[in-house]
Amino acid sequence: MTEFVGARLALARAFQHTTLTRLARVVSASFGLLGHYERGLRKNPRPDLVEALASALKVRPQFFFEPLDDVWREKECSFRRRVATPEGLKRRARAHGTLIDLVLRELATMVKIPKYAIPSIAARDADAIERAADQCRQAWGLGFGPIQHIGRVAEHHGVILVQNLRHADKIDAFSRRGNHSIIVLNPSRMSRSRWIFDVAHELGHFVLHEGLETGSKDTEDQANSFASALLLPRRTFVAEFLSQPFSWGHIFALKTRWAASAAAIVRRAYLLSLMNPILYRRCYQHLSARGWLKAEPHEPEFVGPEWLTSAFGIARDTFGVAPAELAKRVHLAAETFAAVTGEAIEPAAPLGFQPKLIRGRQ
User: Fold this and answer.
1) Mean pLDDT for the chain?
2) pTM > 0.70
3) CA 189, 79, 222 angle in degrees (round to 5)?
4) Predicted pLDDT of residue 190
5) CB atoms within 10 A of CB 118
6) Residue whose C-alpha is closest to residue 103's, from 354, 305, 342, 293
7) Which strands sit side by side in the sheet containing 181-185, from one edge to the other?
8) Model confidence at 353: pLDDT above 90
């Protein structure tokens, strides 16, 4: 393709979180001219302007001359803490997702992405959501005990995890179902139990809200209810919670066993009528006073993104395509590639389960 694609200029600008005015000043062009190129009203910028834009936005010049047929849009994405998140940060997060998709598309020519296998269940009330979570456990062969690694469950069933959302501390996580279904986690959140809940919450959106726009209080509450029911299934959690009188020692023993935060355990017990409102309020006051609503002790192990790291390893070791070559293929500067994927340009060994090779590409 030889024609300048204005949508790619908008994409790179959103990811770098810069305005047209600021960009125009950096590249010594007029605001109006860049706006015309971005909106597709002009098609052939001078080569020196293309070079300047690429340098300023940390992409390669060819980045602007490839088709862009799958842009992450607002109504397709689920954002944790969406109401409190500034639009500019959400736009940057969506750009991040779009760029991840470009990398996954290139990787998918060499490495098989697990088939999407997340049930779609239109559950809205509490009992229906409980049943939906139980159905998912049964479909995924999890039984009704603790889930050892929720991130691994998601990835084995076709939802790729990316843990590199460093630029938006007001977004806990976000996800999108599309050609590649992805959950992006924020590594600045230092609570592993909350990462686990974030993954379960986003899986709740995949299960409950296919084709629906999320972000309302109702859809967020429903995804939270699903996450609680998935991580702490009623049929086994109730008996274990009631096996001993209430104590913080018991709560943290349950946390160790179930890999759920103490706050999530207390909330789940309250919603299942296992503790009265007075005890529940005292528990939350205690959690707040100890600073445990932000960071709790006795954090569980969290197995984060594995497929992407393993895919990078297979691309390098089997096909001779190192991250530096991948960055060239998607036309990103090394710095931007690392910011998008979390993968430095230096080769790294594959971790976790091994994705299957595409047949005929060995």
Assistant:
1) 90
2) yes
3) 100
4) 66
5) 19
6) 342
7) 77-79, 173-176, 181-185, 159-162
8) no
